[in-house]
Amino acid sequence: MRVMHRLLVLTAGALAIGGAARAHAQATTPARRAATNTHSWLQLFGEHRLDARWSLSLEAQLRRADLAGETPQQLVLRPGVLYQLGGGALLGAGYAYAGTSVYGDAPAAAPFPEHRTWQMLQFPSRTGAVAWSHRLRTEQRWVGRIRTVDGVAAHDGYAFRHRARALTRATVDAQALGVALPRAYLTSWGELLVHVGESPDGQIFDQSRAALQAGWRFSPRLRAEAGYMQQFIQRGGSRVSESNHTLVLSLFAVTGR
């Protein structure tokens, strides 16, 4: 039960940190309109190991603006190269594409693309039965701008943004919780995303995420997770904040050596 308590504390902590950042951001920017949405994300995380140190990675995320998966929200593709530092630490870098659709209670005027380059440091730790994973990521973003002329919205070049992300994940096997399922586990994680340098409206806070999920290991190289994520986004330049209740389904696969 102490392990379960730690996971719940992590989830609550992630929500509290995100909430404090949101409160500060909203207190220092003009009044915003709140939009609440229900989303579903289908995610694939693939890694192909070339040797003991080097790997190729690919994330593909199909994000939908409803639970049935009928309305597009966003498509994210994130290929990259990974390098094992030893002791479970990992360096990574690559490119990402995000195509955002018109969706939700406060939709954008038109779909828009985004191109990114990214760098990452990830490292593990352990506290008793709880395995921790910590990830720091920076992103250089070229976000598509939308211009409206005579009532018609269209893509009009790109605005450069720089963003930093910090994620912490805690995972515990079901057996440590007294459940006799050797392949099952429970995981909780939180992530905070902030603007660095020039940003819309001069804001620092971008978004926060907090999740609680159940997982199943089919083999040492294949596992799946399903659960709930709460995502809060403070959209720059639009005076809109999103609170998104999200069903997340994820598959993790490793191939190669």
UniProtKB/TrEMBL annotation:
Keywords: Signal. The lineage of its organism: Bacteria, Pseudomonadati, Gemmatimonadota, Gemmatimonadia, Gemmatimonadales. This is DUF2490 domain-containing protein. SUPFAM superfamilies: Porins (SSF56935). Residues 1-25 form the signal peptide.
